[in-house]
Amino acid sequence: MIEHSENHLFTATTGSVRTVTFNRPRKKNAFTLDMYGRLADALEHAAADPAVRVVVLTGAGDCFTGGNDVEDFLNLPDLDHDPPTFRFLRVLAGFPKPLVAAVNGAAVGIGATMLLHCDLVFAASSAVLWMPFTHLALSPEAASSILLHRVVGLQRAAELLLLGEPCDARRAQEIGLVNEVLPPQRLLERVAERAAALAALPPASVRATKELMRQGLRREVEEAMEREAKAFRERLVSPEAREALTAFLEKRAPDFKRFD
């Protein structure tokens, strides 16, 4: 096994399978801007490395990822430039090799929407998927505005995106977001089995099959991400979002009564 750790990201390669672990457990593996950049780098390196056939994404400790670091949100640099967040989303959506998610706990925000770009998703029975964008006065990302309802249907997508309701692992499996739910202690073992099975298949055939499955949506995904990025930038600097994010950090309920 080859291991590497850098700035809250841990990578390990076993055979032809590379595992990328979000490694910030004291902060629920919340993503900073730097982590987004390093995640994009990690995926690009894996895509370019012929020895890597499958990539597994998981989180350290008992959480997949708590989503975006809220303090980073409140101190974002110039949004007119291309932040690492959007670069990561483009790399994720275009990743040419099989992506397998091992959802070992809460998957919040980007932690949930990134699963729409994974080819296989395995979840611990303790896992919860949550897309609380409206709770934070924000808007969806990762092309979830078009991909989610294709997977679960429009009304269920509204529960998840409009109401921002959490979805436990069993429910996520029922509606098609998760392939298999396992006891927490069995999760990584099962993912390793499935990833190894993928890695043992003819790699060019696997890549071609993935491309054929996703290429019809490629342009729609790109256009959705552009629309979402514009809306997200606008929402992030809105008074509603400043109130919601500040309230989150201050551990109080936000007050949206003064907003139209």
Description:
There is one protein chain. The relative contact order is 0.13. The model has no long low-confidence stretch (mean pLDDT 93). The chain has a 7-stranded mixed β-sheet, with helices on both faces. It has a 4-stranded mixed β-sheet with strand order 5-7-9-10. It has helices at 33-48, 70-74, 84-93, 110-113, 144-152, 154-161, 169-174, 187-199, 203-236, 239-249; strands at 2-6, 9-14, 17-22, 54-59, 63-65, 99-103, 106-108, 120-124, 128-130, 167-168, 180-182. Helix 5 (144-152) crosses helix 6 (154-161). It has a single domain (2-185), classed as 2-enoyl-CoA Hydratase, Chain A, domain 1 (Alpha-Beta Complex). It is α/β, with parallel strands linked by helices. It contains 10 helices and 11 strands.
How many strand segments? 11
- Sheet-strand content, in percent, reads 15-25%
Name the CATH architecture. Answer: Alpha-Beta Complex
| Structural class category | alpha/beta
- According to CATH, the fold-level topology is 2-enoyl-CoA Hydratase, Chain A, domain 1
CATH superfamily: 2-enoyl-CoA Hydratase, Chain A, domain 1
Q: Major sheet: order of its strands?
A: 1-2-3-4-6-8-11
Instruction: Please give the alpha-carbon distance between the first and last residues.
Output: 56 Å
Mean pLDDT: 93
Rg computed from alpha carbons, rounded to a whole number of angstroms: 18 Å
| Tertiary shape | globular
The parts where pLDDT drops under 50 for at least 5 residues are none
Question: How much helicity do the residues have?
Answer: 40-55%
CATH class wording? Alpha Beta
Number of domains: 1
Order of helices and strands: EEEHEEHHEEHEEHHEHEHHH
Could you describe the largest sheet, including whether it forms a barrel? 7 strands, mixed
Q: Total number of helical segments?
A: 10
